[in-house]
Amino acid sequence: MPKSKLTRLLITFFFLLTCSVSFGQGLQISGTVRSAARHEAIPYVNIGIKKKNIGTATRPDGSFKITLKEENRQDTLTFSAIGYKELSLPVASILSGSMTVFELTEKRRHCVKWSSAARRLRSKNLVPHRAIRSCTAPRKRFTRTIFRN
To answer: Which residue in 80, 81, 99 sits closest to 91, CA to CA?
Structure first.
């Protein structure tokens, strides 16, 4: 009997050791995504590797944590959010540089305002958070606002 219990204990210990080693082989990247201009956290930024089913999103405070396999070390991690330019960085450089803060720059949008009363076009280069306020002027007859990248 004692020999059998010892054998079971050793097998169980070996099994648990192998499971912990196989789960410990991932690359873990964590950090915060924020705006480059205002230095504020950006919530719900999409983070992932393109054309692979690997990704996550930032929390409301801009923080994130993603675990990758060793085979993804040569891939590129992409950060994207509406109103911001996409940021792509190699996984190897993120791990070697110990980067924890990732800054996204705002996209500039081209706002075209067309009015049927005046029959002319006016255009401005605007930042997204200002575009709504600047392009929605008091309407005379018919005003239409078009956003283009």
So the answer is: 99
